[in-house]
Amino acid sequence: MKQELKIPQATTKRLPLYYRFIQNFAQEGMERISSKELSEAMKIDSATIRRDFSYFGALGKKGYGYDVQHLLKFFSQTLDQHEATKVALIGVGNLGSALLKYNFQKNHNTHIVVAFDSKAPKEGKMISNIPVFHPDLLEEKYAEYGAELAILTVSPRSAQKMADRLAVMNAKGILNFTPERITVPDKMQLLTIDLSVELQALIYLIRNQEE
Question: Which residue numbers delimit the CoA-binding domain (predicted)?
């Protein structure tokens, strides 16, 4: 996203969801929507939606709501939907293999173009039509395939080492699926998704709701 504004990370994570639902409204032929309608569809309270939208100026009009085509164009430009983003996957275990198979099929501008795994031969192999190479070739093949971002699904002990190598290569960002709390330079973007933490949070919410 090419935004100079300091947008809260929670808001940033919701932007692709807004875009997806706005696309759905457009496909249904709707010309305008209210924050209440968007709230009911997304299961997000309308106050949060209005606050998120307020970071980007006047996206709607009081008493009218939001023009669907205007929002569609805005989120498309904000999320750079017209610019293809090439991604490298590092670590092809169970999760990595699933990501290769899925390969962001519903997001036509984002694709995994190359992967790396310690069990791959030096000459490489194909998995789900994606070339997979040994990590020794990371610097060479990352650049050759034009990757901008990396997804880490390696073991925790390898995560920081891989992040350091990516930093030297001037990778723009990392999506970290390992439980390791890695650090990167300020110029890089880092998002960590710890599935075990998310699951524990869900269990906590369920059990407290039951009480």
Answer: 80-181
